[in-house]
Amino acid sequence: MKFFLIKRLSTFAATLFAATLLTFFALEILPGDPALVILGVDAPDSAVAALREQLGLNRPVTERYIDWISHFLRGELGVSYTYSVPVSELLRERLAITIPLALMAMALSVVIAFSLGIYAATHHNRHGDVLVMGVSQLGISIPNFWLALMLILLFAVNLGWFASGGFPGWYAGWWPALKALILPAIALATVQGAILARFTRSATLETMREDYVRTARAKGLNRRQTLWRHVLRNAMISVVTVMGLQFANLLAGTIVVESVFALPGIGRLILQSIANRDVVVVRDIVTLLVAMVVIINLVVDLLYALIDPRLRSSDV
Amino acid sequence: MSDKRLPGNTLASHKAGRTVASAPASIWRRTLEHRSFLAGSILTSLLAGMALLSLFWTPHNPTRINIRQRLASPSLEHWLGTDQFGRDILSIIMTGAQNSIMVGVVAVGIGLLFGVMLGLIAASAKGWVEELIMRVCDFMYAFPVILLAIMLVATLGSGAINAILAIGIFAIPTFARLARASANAIWSREFVLAAQAAGKSAIRITWEHILPNIVSVIVVQATVEFALAVLAEAALSYLGIGSQPPTPSWGRMLSEVQTLVFLNPWLAVYPGAAIAMTVLGLNLLGDGLRDVLDPRLVYKR
Residue A86, SS3? Predict the structure, then answer.
């Protein structure tokens, strides 16, 4: 376990380090001078030069990298060029939308996945199973932003139950705010849920073939008891792992779906910042997002090893 | 679904593996009987046919603007109606198929070429080389493809090529992991040991014994990755960082008509349905190929 932990943690640190290097230097070659972005193209050369000096853009790249990373590690994020507000403030505002959205989508996809996946597994090779597999195959194939558009078409344009986009802000009360996130969450959760449902089905089927399940049946538990006490508890371990690994996809999906619904979340912020050549914001947010994904993968791995001792010794 | 075709004793046929189950005649029978393979091939051929046809014929010129006929409903002249500029939607959708296929082929090509190469190197070299390659792949997995594409596009500028590049790069670790895992399994087989004993070099063994034995797995993965590439390209074009006008692209069509769904909802339906059908076809084809090419895997599904 100790060796596993050390190995896993060092990979984790190396991944994060490489991610900061990649993000920093990729954005270094970004065309466009931040000083020009702030002052506008018509600014006199002397002003641009002065601002470059002030922003520290004239210092060597390595020095600026170290400077950035040491501040970043202490939680001191930069100040946005275009918004002239600290990135941390922007982040707080935007995460207040993206995180509830991602959580809602995650919860919804779990409900979809577990009910469909377990139903299909317990009705293996019967009509219900075939139907679930067909529907989930379709769910995987639908682009989430198109589903989002279709949801707008149906629930906002035709039925008028929801607004077609935008976000009223949390100060408008929790219900109007949540309501604005329902359609985006459904759009995200359908695709995720379809993927997870297939995993849940195959994991449940696989566990049902295990010897200990037969033993449980032999000792007199009925099908339902066996399913809940033995099959699902074991099958869920691998499903939860996949869920963790799918988190990166969910985040990426959020970027697109936020665009469809004009939600001012992290995704919109990244897209706008890139359009505005706002290197400071892009750098900090991309690094944070990657860190989030890496941390979740680490947690999943560690939890997995904690639950399933067989994994600790093997090459992970 | 597919499990039905196996004889009752799955474990026995699983162990018997190739020799029993894949006599040449039964490959064709399996292929024709496999429903998802059949459905997948039909959908995929439809896509390919549409793209091919559009190379030399479309009902109308997909880029010709005709304001007087804008937002027309479906009619005999315009089967799917026209868009906000009076362009024929069917023609744009048909031409858009070219774009999706091109993106898929190039992106999967990049991922497959470099991924399989890295995977094979990792499997034959072992030791720190294998470790390094696999850790780099792990690292690349931490970047969601959309994020990678956005960064690449931010650095190199918007355009189809950069989007394709990003999708292709993202596919590399998937192919590398798959190739390494499958190659490792082959490396431990007796006939490879025999080849080693006969003094064949690692490169020769890889080329003559490993690669031919992992091709089917790679082909299956390529089909699935193709579907992912089509989806990713559509998303990037929707965000405005994929293919640029006037190249017809299903993803961009969706972003262009988004504000018009109030006027003509069908405008938003067609391109999305085209994407979904393409992806569905490729996924079904991949599933079918997996079963048809390697009957042993059927047991595991």
Answer: strand
